[in-house]
Structures are given as structure tokens and as C-alpha cells.
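Everyone, describe these C-alpha cells:
***
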Amino acid sequence: MNSQTIQQAVILAAGRGTRLTPLTNDRPKSLLPVIGQPILARLIECFHQAGIRHVIIVTGPELPQVQVGIRKALAPGQRVEWVVQPYPTGTVEALQRALPLLSGPFLLSAVDNLTPVEHVRTLIAHHESAPHRIATLSLVRATPAEIRQSADVLLAGAEAVSIVEKPAHPAGQHAAIMLYAFSPDIAEFLPRVQSTPRGEREIVSALQLALAAGRSIGTVLAAWRLHLTRPVDLLHLNSWYLHQMGAVQVQSELPPSVRLIAPVWIDAGVQVGDKAVIGPEVYLETGAQVGAQARLHHTVILAGGIVPAAATLHHAVLDRHGCFVAHVSEKFDTILEE
């Protein structure tokens, strides 16, 4: 039963993020940056602010790369343990690998979901208020098209009565996002989950088994959710954080002729040419290069990305592979239109 304050979380970060290619050709999705920090570090930071002190991160074989990538971002007092899931066999196996490191109730989250800190606190409090619950789900209001890419949840009040993964014909108005609070009792349902035709065993199936056994599952509605599934999502994530910051943050030495229009975040080790105009809503990662007189607006330039002199980029993401989303002012062979 759920009888302890939740201070631990499992973060599922084993996916490479194939729908994000080529942005994930050189690093896993968990290390893609959100104004100066990997998205994994942003999620850990959110949990830390909500009172989570122990985080178990499930990664794929790229464990050493991920450990190095977030080492400097960890807060004092944050306990992090690591588990490797060598093959993508689903979220059930990922959680099963983390269970021996857990004690009591816990949060489970995908690495590509960010919600307000206040929502995480509310989720914890809601779960703790009902010791009989086996789980409490995070929900967002969603369109049928969005629900078809997620999980359809039917409600009776604030209690879930049905949950269906990626339904062809959604019956509800809410989608579940991968941020759940769990009682340790969920472990008894995991071995009974069957594989999908793709050979994966998913947490939603464990929730269905729990409902069928008469267990109670609560829900909490999130005010918003940011996710990272496609290259354009990286643009939206950085824009949202830039708006929250609302200022100019520069860690590189720039020519005096460069014009910065807030909000802008520039990491250390960025090269910018004379008379470039940067902003608003621009993030430049360490290793990015911007040519003289270039103009950037609502743009993310990742490590190795090179903006030609006098080019104008807006609503764009550029990395070393030359991947653009949205619009640029001149034609490049590797432009990908959204």
C-alpha cells in the first residue's frame, strides 16, 4: 500500500529517439539540450524541486555518454542510480530492471515529458491522499488525433475506469502522459503483461490488468505538457524556456557589433560573426557557428551547426547534419520542411 511520502522516481531514458533523427545521430534523445542543459537534466531538476531526492535512470547501451552529459547538471543532495536496458523491449521491462532499487511508492516518467513543478507536487499529493490507489495518472485534454498517439483514458469523476493504448477510435477527451505515481503493488501485475505484435511489453497493459482486478487508479490533469518527439519539438521546448527566462544569457565572447534581442541564450564556445542579429527566441549550443550579418529568430543552433554569412533563419533547428525544420531564407540541399 501507498503509505510513504514519494521521494523517488524512475526516468525511462533508454530510447534513441528515431523520430528525432538526424538530431539523435550523435547523441541519445535524453541529451538534447534545453537552453544549456540536457532535457534529462531539466526533468531531474523539476523532480528535485518537487521533493524527489532519489532518481533511477534507465538508459540504453549509451550509459557512459549519458552519465557524462548530465554530471555537471545534478543538484547537491540528488541521489542518482543507473540501470541499463540493452534492448528496446518496452516500458515494463525497463521498470522491472529498476524495481530492486526502489522502496515504497514512486514516480515513473518518460524522459521526453516536461510538466510544471506544481503538477508533479499535485500528482504526489493526490496519490498520497488515497492509500488504496495503485496508481495516479497524469492527464492532458487532447484531440482524437492526439489521443491516437497516446493512451485514451475514460473517467468516472477523477477515477480512471478505462485506459487504452493508441486507440483507433478514441472514446474519451483525455490522454495519459508518461508521468505516473505508483504504489509498489504495481510490481505484481508486471510479469502478467503480454508482448505486443512489436515485441514490447507496455505499462498501459499493467494498468489495464490492475483495473480488471478492481484496483483504484486516480488521475490529475496537467495544465500543460511539453514533449520531445520530433525535431520541431526541440524548437518549442527551447522557446518556452526562453520565454520563462525573458532575458539575454551569454557565456561566449561576441563582437561588439552583434545585436541581441531578448530572450536569447548563448552557451560558452559559440562563434558569432560581426553584425549578426540574434533573437528573439534563439538558443545557441556550445560548438555552434553563426556567420557575419546572419539573422536568427525563433531558432536553435546545435553543436556543429554552421549558419552561413548573411543567411536569415527563422523557426528553424540546425545541427551538424544540416537539418532544418520550418523556414530558411536560402536553399540548402539538406533542408527538411515540416
